[in-house]
Amino acid sequence: MSFIFYLTHIKIDFGVVHTLTEECQRVGITRPLIVSDMGVRRAGILQVALNALATLPVVVYDQTPSNPTEAAVREATALYHANRCDGLVAVGGGSPIDCAKGVAIAATHPGPLKTYATIEGGSARITDRVVPIIAVPTTAGTGSEVARGAIVIVEDGRKLGFHSWNLVPKAALLDPELTFGLPPLLTAATGMDAIAHCLETFMASPFNPPADGIALDGLQRGWAHIERATQNGQDRDARLQMMSASMQGAMAFQKGLGCVHSLSHSLGGVNPSLHHGTLNALFLPAVLRFNAHAQSVIQDRRMQRLAYSMGLGEILDGERAAESIAQAIVVMNARLGLPSGLGALGVTPSVFDAVIEGAIADHCHKLNPRLATAEDYRGLLIDSM
Predict the structure, then answer these.
(1) Cβ–Cβ under 8 Å, residues 204 and 302
(2) What string of DSSP letters covers 14-29?
(3) CA–CA dist 41, 39 (Å, integer)
(4) In the chain, what is the straight-line distance between the N-terminal and C-terminal CA atoms, in Å?
(5) Quick one: which of 2, 185, 208, 234 has the most CB atoms within 10 Å?
(6) SS (H, E, C) 55-94
(7) What per-residue confidence (pLDDT) applies to 39?
(8) Quick one: which H or E segment has residue 196?
(9) Alpha carbons 285 and 196: distance in angstroms, whole number
(10) Neighbours of 186 (CB within 10 A)
């Protein structure tokens, strides 16, 4: 059975960051803790948020690492309690937003964070006592601002997913102007993350027609505008379209994801310095080819519809459509200046066993349209090198 839930307060337009105080009042936040990172501070975006919250007593945690950790969550939670805060404002990309979701749990729920991880059966333990969050994304990629999930590296080193409808931010303020200063490679990597969400959720096995429709539209927008946004960061329309694609990918992936994310979550846990969106871009071609052999008329039709949405023409054969998409992604990655494969990131076969073990345990693994074995994952890693 699919549970379909699209309910949060979203504003998307240039300048909506300046409604932050209004949204805090609407949600009932009077003493917010801002969760951000040093990159957002250096870019001047944190100050924009602080200016928008000038009438409220605000505390800032800006030490979120590139892949949020339980240690960072605990530091921010201590700051939250010490200053008697009553809500969170996440300002940044997926890392600060996911870190804020970790704080939302840790501030009101006892025990180690892993207790609440999805693969530990923890989703049901995340109650409506979580701290309210307002999310202000500064990248167009993860879509965490409208999603029920977060990815955090817990104390034992695993990179785990946390999922609960209680974690959906109470408001998402999508201001494309905040992405104008995003460097080209980060624009490309986060943009491919959004595209991966749209592609993979459309291929995922659960039944969710609204998610499918949102994913196809988001894919069309993202694919048509990612190169423009990368080449000219001041392109207002491209930035708006990429922010929408990011939001739509996350609205859609409540349906589920698959092997691309199983692998990128696991490898990102083994080496936290690797960027999640870049990994998704590199795993996509191999997984598309793998999924083309799912032996399903439905999956064939899905491949054809994906190819059409990407402007690759009407391809009547599912395997040929998958190959066309995979080749288009390889070419796009090169045009965007992304690495040619995992080897270019310093990944070696020595980590394969650990990555495979993590991928099979990941919450996305079983939702892939073709269930992967350990040897299948090894093949996908080799093909992505």
Answers:
(1) no
(2) TTGGGGHHHHHHHHT-
(3) 5
(4) 37
(5) 208
(6) CCCCEEECCCCCCCEHHHHHHHHHHHHHCCCCEEEEEECH
(7) 93
(8) helix 184-203
(9) 10
(10) 20
Residue 5 has pLDDT above 90, yes or no: no
| Rounded Cα gap, residues 121 and 118, in angstroms | 5
* Overall average pLDDT of the 197-217 stretch: 93
Q: What percent of the chain has pLDDT over 70?
A: 98
Residue with tokens 């439905």: 298
CA distance 22 to 18: 9
Q: Classify residue 147 by burial, with Cβ atoms within 10 Å: 0-12, 13-18, 19+.
A: buried
Cα–Cα distance measured from residue 201 to residue 261, given in angstroms and rounded to the nearest whole number: 10
Extract the tokens encoding 314. 């009407």
No. of H helices and E strands in the chain? 14, 8
Q: CB neighbours of 274 closer than 8 A, spacing ≥ 6?
A: 267, 268, 345, 347
pLDDT for 296 = 73
The model's pTM is: 0.91
What mean pLDDT, rounded, does the chain reach?
93
Binning pLDDT at 50, 70 and 90, where does residue 361 land? very high
Distances (CA, A) of 222 to 90, 96, 225, 242, 310: 24, 23, 5, 5, 9
Instruction: Name the band, by pLDDT with cuts 50, 70 and 90, for residue 36.
Output: very high
Pick from 50-64, 71-85, 167-181, 306-320: least confident: 306-320
Helix 276-291 vs helix 184-203: crossing angle, to nearest 10:
30
Please name which of 365, 177, 343, 198 lies closest in space to residue 266, comparing C-alpha atoms. 365
**Strand (E) or helix (H) holding 34:** strand 32-35
pLDDT of 158 above 80: yes
Whether the CB-CB separation of 356 and 374 falls below 8 Å is answered with yes
CB 66 within 8 A of CB 273: yes
